[in-house]
Predict the 3D structure of the following.
Amino acid sequence: MALTREQMAQRVARELQDGFYVNLGIGIPTLVANYIPDGIDVMLQSENGLLGMGRFPSEEEVDPDMINAGKQTVTARPGAAIFSSAESFAMIRGGHVDLTVLGAFEVDQEGNIASWMVPGKLIKGMGGAMDLVAGAENIICTMTHASKHGESKLLEKCTLPLTGAGCINRVLTDLAYMEIENGAFILKERAPGVSVEEIVEKTAGKLVVPEHVPEMTFDA
Amino acid sequence: MAGFDKRVYSYEEAMQGIESGMTVIAGGFGLCGIPENLIAEIKRRGVKDLTVVSNNCGVDGFGLGLLLEDRQISKIYASYVGENALFEQQMLNDEIEVVLTPQGTLAERMRAGGAGIPAFYTATGYGTPIGEGKEVREFNGRHYILEEAITGDFAIVKGWKADRYGNVVYRHTAQNFNPMAATAGRITVVEVEEIVEPGELEPSQIHTPGIYVDRIIQGSFEKRIEKRTVRD
């Protein structure tokens, strides 16, 4: 079975380490905050200028001056810091964020990512995504392995305009967890009940399959 | 306006001197921390052919979205413009020129503009359509593109509290682009919720020192929320 969005968030959350500063993009990455393992403390960075994003507010706590990068009302946790957009992107561009999780339309075997623009369709803008992928050494891309029509999104070369070049080293799809190394996807784990053959079939880029590919496990 | 007293008492006075064809830098992220009354005054004046520099372009009927109604903006530098149907329509009709700029690059271009730095190198956008046609240099084995500073004829800023000297503090994440915008205007106008007596703001807590600010006005604010989200 392909992973649900919640399972994908759960799997990404296993990569969190105690003391990490983490930026979570919109969509599945946002759900990762719900699965931070017990006993570890992470600080969530929101690129509009908040380090230490807390939970969503109660009705009484809603404050129009307190939002996250997705423009949702949020709270700040104890120990949070708030600053300008220039300061926020200094910490992003300067490589101070330990882990960035974001979605993508396509990723290729060279670590290129396309996530912001489909030519011919309405272009809304890249927001902070280009700065995030340029600044982070440690990025996990979350996406579905193939489009609804079965076309692979893990390519030899991205077809859409890039968000960043050669910057992605880990990808989690609904079918598999992979690392990108030396111009190839390395299959590290597969979703429960998903065969290596299916992953091979749905990966258009170069895929290296080790002898043993463990199956992910999830708590019921 | 005598000496260091930067207070003005009407929005008409606050935006005096704005003309068609000028560049206006605006603070705000989404609808958070936007100079909503200064924008409304620009709409009232009906100046046209403006170049606007702002992370977003408001929503239909509020914030910078107001300036779309009478086609007052001819060009905008922004990182994300997806919340506005009128904007979409004007973009598709080529009535507005959009220069999409990565968010961090936009913030830094304003900061550089205010700090007297004409341009800077950044890795953001290298190898993407944003890097096309821009100078590339390699430092320590990595590629960077040259991005130029932005300055404006006017900067419009939303603060929380200020004193008559123009020292400003911002509230929570309504800070966002405001401090950089404040530095990058030839004329910087700040509207705040409260003007306090000099000495009330702690000097070491000032976000925008008064040297950057030309006019201060106290206003009242709707503070519309774009995506109200509460926990269960």
